[in-house]
Design a protein that fits this description.
The structure holds two protein chains of two kinds. Chain A is mainly alpha-helical. In chain A, 75% of the residues lie in helices and 0% in strands. In chain B, 83% of the residues lie in helices and 0% in strands. The chains are: A mainly alpha, B mainly alpha. At the A-B interface, helix 1, helix 2, helix 3, helix 4 and helix 5 of A face helix 1, helix 2, helix 3, helix 4 and helix 5 of B.
């Protein structure tokens, strides 16, 4: 029972913060996604102990564990671009792979490969 | 029909997840495997994406709360993040800049059309923002979201392999790099490697989105 209540509280908070984030973005005409603002709000509320970790750890833990799931339906949308992929798929793939490799390596080199700065 | 496709998506995801644990390989990446299976199922049953779209809308309403939930690992790892904040920020900025310039430069050299090039320039931000940014920059919004997803999947599949090839062992840095280059899908992959990687991935994904949103309108005249 207590677990169920925690889940309800946790999910309500996460939904509420996401909606609040969207609202802030709309009102201030920001170019940042509402959910990222919601993430920052959650961080601030946890830091100020207004939200306690115990309230959200079950629901937030579950959602972050299965974060990949929520992207699958968007990825299925790729099927609408079969004609484009036939025409420009190979150069697009090359540009994606090479730019990704360089971006990853640059990020890693600046941040530190073995955590020597920690 | 919507409920049916939601249940199918959950079933396909659970199965892909099992396979990814049993045989860990870039090709058993959960998002890649699930997406491929669902597209095949739709094609075999003679359906178009329109059939699936209501199920997509239902599932993606949870994407907001799920992204907010990344605030928890962020909070738990805050001391480590703050201790390395300066270099981490520098890494995110330089990583984002280098990947945009290489992608658009290479795309131009390979004679990609303008709307694909614009989609490439927003590839490293999470797809809802890619969509929004492309719209603001008068590009093809749906295409930009799709290229961003493709970038995320490729990053989740090959990113860990590439990082290991370059001897990047630090979980902090691995998460940061995956979140910077491959946004939410990369972060989801990072979170399976190490909790700290999930936290730095979430932070990097948020900061990349903010940084790209402000920077790209200024960069466009240089890029095109």
């Amino acid at each position: 029972m207590q677990r169920l209540i925690k889940w309800i509280i946790g999910l309500s908070l996460l939904f509420g913060l996401s909606a609040l984030g969207n609202w802030i973005v709309a009102v201030l005409a920001l170019k940042v996604p509402g959910s990222v603002i919601g993430m920052v709000l959650l961080l601030l509320l946890l830091m100020t102990k207004i939200i306690r970790v115990e309230w959200i750890e079950d629901s937030a833990g579950f959602l972050t564990k299965h974060l990949a799931f929520f992207f699958i339906p968007i990825a299925v949308g790729l099927m609408s671009y079969s004609s484009l992929l036939k025409a420009e798929g190979v150069p697009l793939f090359l540009a994606l792979i090479i730019s990704m490799t360089i971006g990853l390596v640059v990020t890693a080199l600046v941040s530190g490969k073995h955590g020597e700065a920690s | 029909m919507t409920v049916f496709w939601i249940l199918i998506t959950i079933a396909v995801y659970m199965l892909s997840r099992k396979l990814s644990f049993k045989w860990a390989s870039p090709f058993t990446n959960v998002v890649f495997l699930s997406t491929l299976t669902l597209i095949l199922l739709l094609l075999v049953s003679g359906q178009t994406y329109d059939t699936y779209a209501p199920a997509k809308d239902a599932i993606t309403t949870l994407l907001g709360p799920a992204t907010v939930a990344l605030g928890l690992p962020l909070y738990r790892n805050l001391p480590i993040l703050l201790a390395r904040a300066k270099r981490a920020l520098g890494a995110i900025v330089l990583g984002t800049l280098s990947t945009i310039f290489v992608a658009v430069g290479l795309g131009t050299a390979l004679k990609l059309t303008d709307h694909v090039l614009l989609a490439l320039s927003v590839k490293s931000v999470t797809s809802p923002i890619a969509l929004e940014l492309a719209r603001q920059l008068q590009g093809d919004a749906a295409l930009a979201a799709s290229v961003a997803v493709a970038c995320g999947i490729l990053g989740a599949m090959l990113g860990p392999v590439i990082l290991s090839m370059f001897n990047v062992t630090d979980p902090f840095t691995r998460g940061l790099a995956l979140g910077t280059i491959s946004h939410g899908i990369g972060t989801a992959q990072a979170a399976t490697e190490h909790p700290l990687s999930g936290a730095t991935g979430g932070a990097a994904m948020g900061l990349t989105a903010i940084f790209t949103s402000f920077l790209l309108p200024l960069l466009l005249p240089i890029l095109f």
